[in-house]
Specification:
211 residues; alpha/beta; 6-stranded mixed beta sheet; two-stranded antiparallel sheet; 8 helices
Length: 211
Amino acid sequence: MKYTPVGVDIAKHLIQVHFIDENTGEVVDKQLRGRDFLEYFSNREPCLIGMEACGGSQHWARELTKLGHNVRLLQARFVKAFVMGNKNDVMDARAIWMAVQQPGKEIAVKTEEQQSVLVLHRTRMQLVKFRIAQINALHGTLLEFGETIHKGRASPFQTRRHPRAGNCPRAESLRATHSPEFSPGAWCTHPRHEKHGFRAGAPHTRTETRF
């Protein structure tokens, strides 16, 4: 089956469409709102639709695939080579239209289940980074009170006094406010999340890495 190539540039509220009508040869540059986008393509013959991989592209790709269209998600750096003139929605849609007709690596369209797993992993990574930032901040702060921290996740709560440092209630207070119970990073080690395989430091399976 021969598909009509279509370039689609996705924005927050408006979607720019570019293609050439095979019957009339007319160049079509059409701007659609999100609510009209699927209705427009539901009334067309199957097309080869190219979209730049960006926020919302996975959702629209799944919906267009349900309508029988062939969707290719393209990397932004691949599309950039086809942009001519000033960058705007119309020129971007034309660049995508040209890029989708060329051979190149495309990004897989993911199911909602795969997308959900990705969201969980991204959230966990953000929280782990936040926890590391907290530990590093506490490390620097406690050094000002003559205490050093051993390596390891639990080390901020197992500090070692400097030989010449006296007792410091302020340092004890700082350790208390940075305890795991008060840390958003505790989400990563909560038993409920460890049960689902999101234990801090747990290795990813090959399937999760592929997502």
